[in-house]
Amino acid sequence: MRSAYLSAARALQLGRDSAVEGDQDRALRLYGEALDLLAVLPPERTRDVLLAHTHLAFYQTLELLGGQGSQRHLQLGVSYARSTRDPLARAIAEECLSGLDVVM
Hints:
With 104 residues, the chain is mainly α. The chain has helices spanning 2-20, 24-39, 45-64, 70-84, 87-98.
């Protein structure tokens, strides 16, 4: 199970790097890979923190591309950020919500 977490975290990081470099298609593929890895793991805090970060990164990248399907990722990311109480995930969620006039 630990290797699945590491693989998901690596895919998330590579996805973020790709998004920053302007390769949004690769970023979205990598985020999808991370979500696929995390979806088969049993619920627990580490998985949920990674899900929060991945959904929020997915949202941010989709927004750059025009927002198709981004709201679902925002809702899931915010939900996981709230439930895990991970400070960084919550800060990212707040930033994503700031333009929407919604408060966590």
